[in-house]
Structures are given as C-alpha cells and as structure tokens.
C-alpha cells in the first residue's frame, strides 16, 4: 500500500477529505446483453448497532459496534472493541442496517466492497433528537 | 452489498481523529461459498490504537495510547493441536501507526510461514512462498499467512510498535 495512505488517514475523511474532485464512471453492459434484475431481498440481513461507552478510557468515552442477535437491539454490554467479525459470503447479496446511537454523526467504510462513489460509499449517519437514525445498505 | 472477493477486510469509521481511536472498527471477513469460518484455526489479529491520546501533562510530551491487539493490551494464550494448519489474518487499523510489526517465533527464533493473501486478494501460486515470520503492516493493510502447528511446544505471535518498543503477545500452546 502507498505509504501516503497513512498520511491521509490523519484527518476525518467524512467531513474534510472526501469532497471536491470526484469522478464517477458508469460501466454499461454490451449493447443487447441481457441484464439480470437485482434480487429484491438480500440473502443475509445484519443489524449493526453503534453505542457510546462513557468513561471507558479514563474520562474519555469509547465508541463501539455490536451485532444484533435475535429480535432485541444489543445494549452497552454487547458492545465490543474491536467490533464483531462480520462474516459475509462472496457473491451473496447482504443488507447491513446500521443504527447510530451516538450523539454525533458517524460513518462506516467497508473495505473490499464495491459501492458506487459518493455518499453510498461512505455514508454519514446523524442522530436527530432522541430518534436513532438508521440506514440500510442493500 | 454483494462482496466480490473472499478475503480479509476491515470496516471502520472515517472520523479518524476521535471515533477511530475510540473503537469504531472491526474485521470484515468474506468467505467463499460453502467455506466455514473456524475460529480454532482461523485467527484475526487486529491492531488498533487503545483509545484517544491521554491528555498531556503541562510541559510534558504527549502520551500515546497503547497498542491494542484484538482490543487488549494483555497477553493471551490459545491452546491448539499439533498437525493443524492455521490462518493468521493480520490487520492494522490504527489512525497513524505505520510500521507495526507482527512476528511468529518459537524459542525466540522466527519460524517460517506461508504468505497466502494481501489486502483481501489471494496471492498467485508464485508468490505463495514460505518466508521468515515477520511482517510490517501499515495503516489500512491486511496480510494473510498460513502456518502448520507441527511441533508441540509454544509459539508466540507478537505485535510490536517500533516507535516505543511496546508489545502485545499471543502464545499458542501446541499440544
């Protein structure tokens, strides 16, 4: 990897770096080729919850992820650092719902996943009043 | 999302200065269809920064937060059986610790492991070679190595932060 990657990791991409000159390229199928419509339902659906753990590092908070198991949203006790391993399968359509319980906006970048350039690639979730802001990625 | 390749990846916030150091990251493992993830032999070793930098004392240099290996600073022990083949998925998702170094030793000597993937891409056969088991991993990189636990005894996987010499270790007890 280019060592400069580390240098550009010094800032907050979501607010400072990934704006301005961005080029989008659409690759179209060969004329006349049959295009399969995307399936309407993901084969795998995950819910990833983000919570703040106050006074985790001395007086400072930790932020962490938890993966929902079953019908109930995970609480603080289920938050882990690092976040839980996400086990996906090559070629399997997967939906990950991210629920942000922080008092600030955040973002998630998924390495190795090809997403359209722009807000679909690195999305910011902002919490509004007491309502958690959810975004679903199909 | 539809993962296009099987391999070792990361998910993380892009708010690096505060949220990344505070814990918003994790391993993203993409498996081949039908492949099973077996944590007994498939090991994720994720290096990160153990929290935001502590506040500096007046007139003193800034203090760095410790290195985390899978979210811990303490040594860990894993028991395993001889004859088993293990996969090591090495990840650096610190905000800016470029030269973190992973190594695998027996009695203080580097063993030989086999490189099998880099940044989620399987290596071609010509590059899947045995090398001395030491690897620098910079920010955002992943490396996968394979090692056969063929000799009973102890093996130590060490994460070294060369800047201050701090280490976090995992010991494999091969029975």
Report, as a whole number of angstroms, the end-to-end distance of chain B: 41 Å
| Cα-to-Cα separation, first versus last residue of chain A | 29 Å
Q: Identify low-pLDDT runs of chain B.
A: none
Q: Number of DSSP helices of chain B?
A: 1
- Weakly predicted, low-confidence segments of chain A: 1-10, 128-138
Query: What is the largest interface, and how many residues per chain?
Result: A-B, 52 and 53 residues
- Helix-strand sequence of chain A: HHEEEEEEE
- Class based on secondary structure composition and strand pairing of chain B: mainly beta
Strand tally of chain A is 7
Strand order of the largest sheet of chain A: 2-1-4-7
Short précis:
With 138 residues, chain A is mainly beta. Chain A is 7% helix and 33% strand.
Write a structural description.
The complex is a heterodimer of chains A (138) and B (175). The relative contact order of chain A is 0.19. In chain A, strand 1 (44-57) and strand 2 form a beta hairpin. Chain A has 2 helices and 7 strands. Chain A has 138 residues and is mainly beta. Chain B is 4% helix and 51% strand. Chain B has one helix at residues 16-22; strands spanning 7-12, 25-31, 42-49, 67-69, 76-80, 84-92, 100-106, 109-110, 112-118, 121-122, 130-132, 134-137, 142-149, 153-161, 166-174. The interface between A and B is large, with 52 and 53 residues. Strand 5 of chain A pairs antiparallel with strand 1 of chain B.
Name the descriptors:
heterodimer; A: 138 residues; mainly beta; 4-stranded mixed sheet; 2 helices; 7 strands; disordered N terminus; disordered C terminus; B: 175 residues; 6-stranded mixed sheet
Describe the protein's topology:
The complex is a heterodimer of chains A (138) and B (175).
Chain A: H1 4-8, H2 13-17, E1 44-57, E2 60-67, E3 86-89, E4 94-100, E5 106-110, E6 123-125, E7 133-137
Parallel strand pairs in A: 1-4
Antiparallel strand pairs in A: 1-2, 4-7, 5-6
Chain B: E1 7-12, H1 16-22, E2 25-31, E3 42-49, E4 67-69, E5 76-80, E6 84-92, E7 100-106, E8 109-110, E9 112-118, E10 121-122, E11 130-132, E12 134-137, E13 142-149, E14 153-161, E15 166-174
Parallel strand pairs in B: 3-6, 5-15
Antiparallel strand pairs in B: 1-2, 3-4, 6-13, 7-8, 7-12, 7-14, 9-10, 9-11, 9-13, 14-15
């Amino acid at each position: 990897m280019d060592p400069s990657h580390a240098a550009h990791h010094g800032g907050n991409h979501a607010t400072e770096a990934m704006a301005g000159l961005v080029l989008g390229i659409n690759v179209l199928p060969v004329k006349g080729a049959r295009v399969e419509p995307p399936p309407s339902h993901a084969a795998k659906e995950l819910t990833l919850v983000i919570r703040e753990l106050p006074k985790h590092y001395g007086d400072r908070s930790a932020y962490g992820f938890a993966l929902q198991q079953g019908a109930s949203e995970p609480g603080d006790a289920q938050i882990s650092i690092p976040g839980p391993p996400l086990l996906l399968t090559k070629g399997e359509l997967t939906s990950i719902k991210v629920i942000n319980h922080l008092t600030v906006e955040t973002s998630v970048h998924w390495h190795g996943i090809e997403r359209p350039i722009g807000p679909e690639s690195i999305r910011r979730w902002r919490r509004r009043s007491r309502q958690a802001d959810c975004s679903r990625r199909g | 999302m539809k993962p296009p390749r099987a391999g070792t990846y990361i998910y993380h916030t892009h708010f690096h200065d505060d949220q990344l150091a505070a814990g918003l990251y994790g391993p993203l493992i993409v498996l081949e269809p039908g492949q099973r993830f077996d944590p007994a032999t498939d090991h994720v070793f994720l290096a990160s920064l153990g929290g935001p930098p502590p506040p500096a004392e007046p007139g003193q240099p800034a203090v760095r937060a410790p290195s985390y290996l899978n979210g811990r600073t303490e040594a860990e022990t894993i028991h395993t059986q001889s004859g088993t083949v293990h996969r090591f998925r090495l990840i650096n998702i610190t905000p800016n610790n470029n030269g973190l170094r992973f190594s695998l030793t027996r009695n203080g000597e580097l063993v030989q492991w086999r490189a099998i993937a880099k940044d989620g891409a399987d290596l071609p056969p010509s590059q899947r070679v045995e090398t001395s088991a030491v690897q620098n991993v910079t920010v955002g990189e992943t490396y996968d190595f394979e090692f056969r636990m063929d000799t009973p005894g102890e093996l130590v996987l060490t994460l070294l932060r060369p800047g201050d010499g701090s280490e976090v270790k995992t010991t494999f007890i091969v029975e």
